[in-house]
Amino acid sequence: MRTQVGIVGAGPAGLLLSHLLHLRGIDSVVLEAHSRDYVQKRVRAGVLEQGTVDTLVATGLGDRLLREGLVHHGIELRFGGQSHRIAFEKLVPGRAITVYGQQEVVKDLIAARIAAGGRILFEVSGVAPTGFDTAHPSIGFTHAGLRQTLECDFIAGCDGFHGVCRPAIPDGVLTCYDREYPFAWLGVLAEVPPSSEELIYAHNDRGFALHSMRSPEVSRFYLQVAPDEDVASWPDERYWAELRARLETVPGWHLRTGPVLEKVVAPMRSFVAEPMRYGRMYLAGDAAHIVPPTGAKGLNLAAFDVGVLAQALAAWYADGSTGLLDAYSGTCLRRVWRVQHFSWWMTTLLHAFDGYDGYDRRLQRSHLDYVCGSAAASASLAENYVGLAHV
Ligand SMILES: Cc1cc2nc3c(=O)[nH]c(=O)nc-3n(C[C@H](O)[C@H](O)[C@H](O)COP(=O)(O)OP(=O)(O)OC[C@H]3O[C@@H](n4cnc5c(N)ncnc54)[C@H](O)[C@@H]3O)c2cc1C
Fold this sequence. Notes:
The protein has about 400 residues and is of the alpha+beta class. Helices cover about 35% and strands about 25% of the residues.
């Protein structure tokens, strides 16, 4: 089997790359370990930056997104018995976020690729990228019981944090930077209309809580818990009671609860591998970097990477120029590190840390007061949250 770009992973990064390449007349094959049904139902991110929405709309994927996505012009920070709104419409006019589930983005992308005759092979195993330090890379894989080789000009490693592409790069090439946080998020998806029109980030001595949503009928909640927390020790009643204790801290605000559709523990980690390229292997999305979800950035960063990569590959196919390909890693890493900082900052600002004494907590509280009380500090949060246009 032969293609121009062999893509490992049918998450947002791999699928969007395949779509963007197709629009530039470049052929690709996507190899995915899971079934189509599985990837279309995997509930994860849900907050799209303005730039991500603009890319999806400009490339013909805006139909359902514009109809069903919930456009938000602000978020709420809740602490000290008060709520403070970060008003995007005043602080970053013309820019907003859109709440639209990652699984919906994935569904739209798969439908578009299949309608255009794109090749996505689901349920492949034994994926083995090789030869990417030569001009003739290839990817070995097994599909429907048959061992095959996909020959290509380039390999895009879009296979997430636990994929095979990054580990296939020889030892000593990549430098990895990481941070583990001493807590995790216990996320619940529930069939209940949101209790608030906008996301609520709650700072509380009991721990952080987030009220989010996926649609007018489905809410998403997160509680800060211990990193090794067992979901089984959180029956629904305990979950709702703790969420109430952390969120119902302002007069007159009440949490609506409903049937729980899913309950998962998500680890909190920051990670960057540099450079994001080795020979003809290009890493994109979670394969190269991850952020704690506090800043809602992972999916958006994946979309940014593949936008840069698609443009660089198009330049190479147009006239053999390597300038943009050579600049790929540096271009992406500038935004990656901005987003790393923002996600780390939001995480350290809002969570309760074991071992924090009165001094640490007062610093945290002072910083929250500053962020909400100063127009400049609010604008900084807002422009990072909706996605910086210039990095
Ligand atoms: C609980 C949670 C909440 C989140 N909330 C947000 C948010 O609000 N906003 C935001 O922007 N981001 C959020 N994120 C992060 C976001 O989901 C990820 O950053 C995003 O999925 C990255 O996309 P990706 O395509 O790079 O990787 P992935 O989505 O991980 O896709 C990688 C694909 O590669 C496949 N694969 C892996 N190994 C192989 C292999 N060996 N062979 C073939 N295929 C393979 C996987 O099955 C998968 O389909 C959240 C993440 C979690 C876990």
